[in-house]
Specification:
Ubiquitin-like (UB roll), 2 domains, 5-stranded mixed sheet, 5 helices, 5 strands
């Protein structure tokens, strides 16, 4: 039986000619056709079930033939970019707000210092990953997403992460608190000011 494939609610005339095609090959073929329209598959539904986190997973290697229907929902590059910018601003805001909390916990020896430090560290990693993905997408599709090229911030973020790691591993909570308060916080505030055309 040939599975039914729907793209944004419209049934496609689809035939699995190789009779061994995978979900990943289907997605790739659809996205290749959508490239000129600057649209991408954002949601994948298989036999009525939405599959979260499907990109880069083993789901893409599954054969099409064992399923009845696929529903693909798309979004424009502009929609994706706006969502990405909102997400990046949220990561930066939450990281900025977590810094004083962590500094306070470190200075008084609070039990929450570990959790707030991890949130900051993880937040910085997500900031770099999101900035990089947006910058690459913006460049590829000629979209001016940032006031300044985010690449200018990468080395500083990596230095901060390394300094935080060293202070943490050395057990020097005073140095870690100082690094967060006097170096990282002003840097995050400056980055927030210089990156965005508008602030949410």
């Amino acid at each position: 039986m040939v599975p039914h494939v729907y793209l944004d609610g419209i049934m496609l005339d689809f035939e699995d000619r190789g009779n061994g095609s995978t979900i990943g090959e289907l997605i790739e073929a659809v996205e290749n056709d959508l490239t000129g329209a600057r649209r991408f598959v954002m949601e994948l539904w298989v036999d009525g079930e939405r599959l979260p986190e499907w990109r880069g997973s083993t789901v893409l290697k599954r054969p099409l033939a064992v399923y009845n229907d696929f529903k693909l929902k798309t979004a424009s590059m502009e929609e994706i970019a706006l969502e990405g910018l909102d997400l990046l601003q949220e990561y930066i805001r939450v990281t900025r707000e977590n810094i004083p909390v962590c500094v306070s916990d470190l200075r008084i020896g609070g039990a929450r210092a570990d959790a707030s430090f991890s949130a900051i560290f993880d937040g910085l990693v997500e900031i770099v990953k999101t900035m990089d993905a947006l910058a690459r997408g913006g460049e590829k599709y000629s979209m001016d997403l940032f006031k300044e090229n985010p690449a200018i911030f990468y080395n500083a973020i990596l230095r901060c992460l390394e300094g935080m790691r060293q202070a943490r591993e050395g057990g020097d909570t005073v140095m870690l608190a100082d690094l967060l308060e006097y170096e990282l916080l002003p840097f995050v505030e400056e980055m927030e000011e210089r990156l965005f055309h508008f602030n949410a």
